[in-house]
Each structure stands twice: as C-alpha cells, then as structure tokens.
Amino acid sequence: LVESQGNPSTDPLILWLNGGPGCSSLGGLLTELGPFRPNPDGKTLYENQFAWNKVGNVLFIESPRDVGFSYRSNSVPADTIYNDDKTAEDNVLALQSFFERFPEYKNRDFYVTGESYAGVYTPTLTDLLIKRI
Fold it and tell me: Which domain covers residue 101, as residue numbers?
C-alpha cells in the first residue's frame, strides 16, 4: 500500500494488478506508477511526477498466486489448477484480509485497475466483488 500524497484519509483506494499473466505488481510500483523511480545509476531514486498516489491510496497485490512475493500455503495441494476465476477468488480473499486489517479504507471509492493481462483479471475480479457485495 502506498498512501495518497493528497488526503489519505478520504482519497480513494486504487487496486493495481500487473498482467502477464505472471508479472509482479511490484513492477508497476517500482517502474511505472509508484512515487519514486530509479535513476540510471541504479543506486538513487527520483520523484515520479506522474505517481498515482498523488490522487489516491494505491494497493499493489501480487497476482496470480506464486508471483513475486506471493506464495501458496502448504494447505493448498500442489496440483491445484489456477485460472482466471481462481485468481479472482484469491484476490477477493486478499482484499477481505486487507479490509479487516485496515478498515479505514473500507468505505471509500474503490477502483480496480491494471495493465496487460489485467484486462482479464480486473473485470473477472470486479464481477466477483459485485456478486459478493
């Protein structure tokens, strides 16, 4: 989660999902829409003037499971088949956990967005969220 530079207590929550499938959302955070970007020297950062957290709180989720720093718990069978619907289910569980830990983000505008294959993830997730509300 990257808090808004505006008014974090009232600004919307924006969920960012990278595509791929299989690309870490940290790629979006660190090289595209996060508050800082690496300088060519690879050792220092500069402020990203187009950072999305200038207008909202941005939540980056590693998706699908096993991408980036996400992982499968030992209780999930190794032969479990993952598809777009399963990824949406996992993301709903992740969001439920997030809102339980950070209830202050629960009752505000919420946007689901991403790039590339997230063009499949985002409507699948949004459809599931609408059905569960």
Answer: 13-132
* Short-list 61, 31, 53, 59, CA closest to 121: 61
Predicted confidence pLDDT, tens digits, the chain (133 residues): 999 999 999 999 999 999 888 888 988 998 899 999 999 999 999 999 999 999 999 999 988 877 776 666 666 777 777 899 999 999 999 999 999 999 999 999 999 999 999 999 999 999 999 998 7
How many domains are there within the chain?
Answer: 1
Residue 22, domain member (yes or no): yes
CA 38 to CA 52: how far, in whole Å?
16
Whether residue 12 has a cis bond before it, omega within 30° of 0 = no
Place of tokens 């941005």: 58
DSSP H stretches of helix in the chain: 25-28, 84-101, 118-132
What pTM was computed for the model?
0.88
Residue 117 lies in a domain: yes
CATH number, domain of 18, equals 3.40.50.1820
Domain membership flag for residue 2: no
